[in-house]
Amino acid sequence: MPKTLPLDPTQLRQSGWLEAPRLPLNRYRPDPQAEMARYGAPTLRGIYRDMLYIRSFEAMLDAFKTQGVYQGLEYSHKGPAHLSIGQEAAAVGLCLPLGPEDFIFGSHRSHGEILAKGFGAIAQLGEAELASILETYQEGRILRVVERHPHQSLQERALDYLLYGLLAEIFGRDTGFNRGMGGSMHAFFPPFGILPNNAIVGGSADIAVGAALYKRVARQPGICVASIGDAALGCGPTWEAMTFASMDQYRSLWPAEVGGAPPVLFNFMNNFYGMGGQTLGETMGFGVLARVGLGVNPQALHAERVDGFNPLAVAEAVERKKALLLAGQGPALLDTLTYRYSGHSPSDASSYRDKSEIEAWQAQDALEHYAGYLIAQGLMTQEEQEALQWEAQERLRRIAGWAISDSLSPRLPPNSEQIAQWMFSRRPSPARAEGPPWVEKPLPETRYGVLQSKHRSGLDEAGRPLPKLKCLTYAEALTEALFEALYTDPSLIAYGEENRDWGGAFGVYRGLTEALPYPRLFNAPISEAAIVGTAVGYALSGGRVVVELMYCDFMGRAGDEIFNQMAKWQAMSGGVLELPLVLRVSVGSKYGAQHSQDWSSLVAHIPGLQVMYPATPYDAKGMLTLALQGSDPVVFFESQRLYGEPETLVPGGVPLGSYQVPLGQPAVRRPGQDITLISLGPALYRALEAAQRLQAYGLEAEVLDLRFLNPLDYTPLVDSVRKTGRALLVSEACERGSFLHTVASNLSQLAFDHLDAPIVVLGARNWITPPAELEDLFFPSADWIVDAVHERILPLPGHQPRTAQATHVILERNQLGV
Question: Looking at the annotation, which residues are catalytic?
């Protein structure tokens, strides 16, 4: 139902003072007796072992990267290696209270968190489940290497498996966690709750929020941790993520049984540097990082600074935060104080900091201090410490030998097409969860029932136009597809800017407010990066999601999330992840330079995205249904010019019930044999108008509607061009860099021997989009098409051009850059 949150001016206009909560700073007080009682000797000793293995692993990488040799093993590592030497206690303490059901998302410097989370999962999983993971993940590819060595226990084998799987991934091997596609900065292992690590600073923040949202909506156990660096607070998406996670509606509007706010912990690994920029005193102004929580919500994100040089201090803080997150009282923030002894990367000489500073922190080294603590408490002897160090070196030498072996750990072979198979998962299904969807009323009692009674076509049996108000429109066809999908797939949720109550900025969600509970349809903040980034996290965690950006122009606010996150995780996972995410984007007109741009070409350039652009109500419903039942990320463009239009091109109009348009297939909208007109989006109707006018010159134009940018089946296009020998392509995107140039280039190669003239591309002018009153100067028209045919393809008898489409005009405009 619509929300009821009255705003009382008499209350809001009262004067007073706002009191901010006090934030704890390094308040943990060591108590060996209490710590022994709390954790027990095996766990306390295990903490040292885990820190030691992380330090040894990173030192091994450093040796390979800088010297090309480790313990006599020679190997040249070409890829990156952002080391976390010095941060081991922070990583192990963070993961100690976490279970396999808890998800951790990291950064480019997260080898330590990967290993720490993995060590914890090995210790907690039952033998049957652990054995099944090792045997089945990546079809046992990793296990086949590891089991060559005899192990005394399953846990020992799993330890080798974890270390080897990560190292093989870093070295780009097919036996790595992600088939070598993630490498050092993107490695992850979902069975242990280790979710994608992110090379983009702060990139995990909104993805972790989306994963936490999935845990709430799907009633899944556990919390999600975004483990990111202090410099991430200079990134807008990080703030958007914190804002999204803190929305009041989780408590004020969502049903109590959902459990409150998404259980996400923003853990800032505060090592005081973003590459060479020093956050404290130079590139930031917060002084104490935890302070930023004061600006987000009344609870100040439950923020506190914790001493990351004491693993028990970090563990105690994370345990407290986990409890409040599971109770729905989040989100939470930890300012985990730590320090990296090594440079940003092996090529960094650390010229931006004094050697004395590094030495001062090394004097506080957590490994040495914690070992001293264990020895002082009689939990470890000096001899046992040395034995652990020897064991770590021997194990890592064995694992490194496997990882550098081309026979044991091959890479993808030359000319392999395997990466192409990982770009898209292609595992469509109507639903990604079992059981009935959570809805407020039966489907026939919703607006969907009203829409079903409308005329399915905009034309009567004689071909005469019917009243538009009585016909199903393009926007309403989209609405039907959304209703059908949301009433079929329990995992599907929808959100964006003004999706609820308002019904979406263009009415596509109208009627869904009364049909769906808040967790399945809600208003997001005006935070485009967070909208897309959280959708990525929701989808890769197991759900399906459709989100909306109100205008195509706003994609710039979510550029990283679309181009670096949404597009890449399926391939970077080596086929492990699916990403069923539909991003609806309206392409505007009438609203000028910042609200009326067609950026479909920009998106089509990015590998990993399916891109769709329907031009008719029939396609709007059938293509959105296709997208919503797929398993891949889709950018779904919709033209605001067409929202109010009924179906006039497809006989019979828009079918009742669910149906799909074949993926990647263009549609022939008008047959012809003299020239091929290929259109994208609303330019279809200008092409049809031009085809009608070309008849006066004795030309029968065949008109094809691309519908898809990626994937795209060129066969119908090639067949048409081979038949006609001539082609003109038109869309409303700016001509320079238009996707249609890619289509034209491919057609010129695929049908070269059949061409009687050069292929022509028309687009909008290479200007900013002018106001509505001047749009006729900017967007292609039927006049442009007819004139371009005359000037560049085939002279039309007696034709007098009315627009500037001649070849010399192209030269002049490009010389001027317009």
Answer: 595
